Amino acid sequence: MTQYPSLHMIIDGEQVSGGGRRTFDVVNPVTGETLAELPLADPADLDRALEVAQKGFAIWRKSTPQQRAAVLQGAARLITERGDDLARIATMEEGKPIAEAKMELMMVTGWFNFAAGETSRLYGRELVRPVGQRSTVRWEPVGPVAAFAPWNFPLGNPGRKLGAAIAAGCSIILKSAEETPASALGILQALLDAGLPKEVAQAVFGVPDEVSRHLLGSPIIRKLSFTGSTVIGKHLAKLCADNMIRTTMELGGHGPVLVFDDVDVDRVLATAAPGKTRNCGQVCVSPTRFIVQENVFERFRDGMAERLAATKVGNGLEDGVQMGPMANPRRPDAMEKFVANARDKGARVNTGGERIGNQGYFFQPTVLSEIPLDADIMNEEPFGPIALVNPYADEEAMIAEANRLPYGLAAYAWTDNVQRQRRLAAEIEAGMVGINSHMIGGADAPFGGVQWSGHGSEDGPEGVKACMVLKAVHEG
After folding, report:
1. Which of the following is catalytic: 250, 381, 429, 458?
2. Structural domains present in the chain
3. CA distance 83 to 81
4. Do 268 and 412 contact (CB within 8 A), yes or no?
5. 0.90 cut: is pTM over it?
6. Catalytic: 284?
7. Based on the number of CB atoms within 10 Å of its own CB, is 32 exposed (0-12), middle (13-18) or buried (19 or more)?
8. Can 250 be counted among the known catalytic residues?
């Protein structure tokens, strides 16, 4: 059985720990017990990481596409070889079922391999000019990147950020979530073991506000990649403004799911119910607001409640478990407040709505229905295993509800009407739209949102080019 590893930071290839540094207790969400103590960076550590990142950029910007591809492909092979251990570690510190952690690893290796190929596809172009003049447009790495990754995908989020920067020829300082450090360290270590120069990628942990102000206040950092809440994203964008740091922001969502009366309800539920409980609902693209046409509302609501009530909840390391605990004690507290507020506003609780047991951070899969629009949960991202199901009369009303909030990350729609599918693709305001599918991600597809859900993209060619800048060169 995989043991939880000792923890450290990685700066200039060195495993940094001890030295009287402050520490953070990493907790198993199944039991609430401490797994290990994580050393937190002090200002001297951050200064050292910045200095090394500057040196790393000078090295890596000169690397060839073949060198960058070899590192990424080599890391993908090592991650596959180490997959069982990495998946168990991710489940121990975040709580998700181990099958989901293994799928997350497949996401990382797929992205590394795609980004490796993309290193040879970073084409510029030559412009048509009069005889005697040559004008070209070229892509160049932006510079040292600061990357902040959250805890909900402890393997995938660091992998996305590391892969993009390394493919583009940048150095990177990764600050992953303090709740899930060993997963991020495992991904970075695979890259170092695959031949990445030790100066190119660093991993630090610390008090988030201290680390962000220190790194983003430095002229060395040229790019921020952030995944997290809209509130924190807005704060970080303001910090970046002082040094005109480029940003990619993958922020919160409130995923609308439009279900029309021309579909097979059971077919929709077969996808929607497990989509809602995936990672205990702690997914930025989680299906959340089920906007259901009146004719099928009761069938859908009752079917969703039946399926969620039957979900097997428990330790993600145990066979057959479909949903683990929430990742930290803040989340079940938030769920209780959301449910109480919705009930006070007149919503119905069709199943769930309460904590499970008195150990760990478990919360029941929950269905709320007929929820007034002024309930908090109808306007704030729940980030938990709560499905919101309301009836609507027609397509116009359903699209209006889908677009009512300022979030625009992922949206979903289920209809067999081809003309309607095309209208929805055009009219729903979101960075990603799934029609008759909840599968909206892929290594080759841009991942990102609009409005309060952020800007820029991860994954796809766009994810690599987000770590690059354009230069026009005109030669007489």
Report:
1. 250
2. 9-251+453-475 (3.40.605.10), 255-442 (3.40.309.10)
3. 6
4. no
5. yes
6. yes
7. middle
8. yes
Query: β-strands 287-293, 386-392: how paired?
Result: parallel
Per-residue pLDDT of 81-137, as tens digits, reads 999 999 999 999 999 999 999 999 999 999 999 999 999 999 999 999 888 899 999
Question: How far is 392 from 83, CA to CA, in rounded Å?
Answer: 45
Question: Does 1 score more than 90 pLDDT?
Answer: no
Active-site option among 170, 284, 458, 467: 284
Tokens of 440: 């909206």
Digit-coded pLDDT (tens) for 321-375: 999 999 999 999 999 999 999 999 999 999 999 999 999 999 999 999 999 999 9
| Token couple for 199 | 């100066």
Residue 462 identity (one-letter amino acid) = E
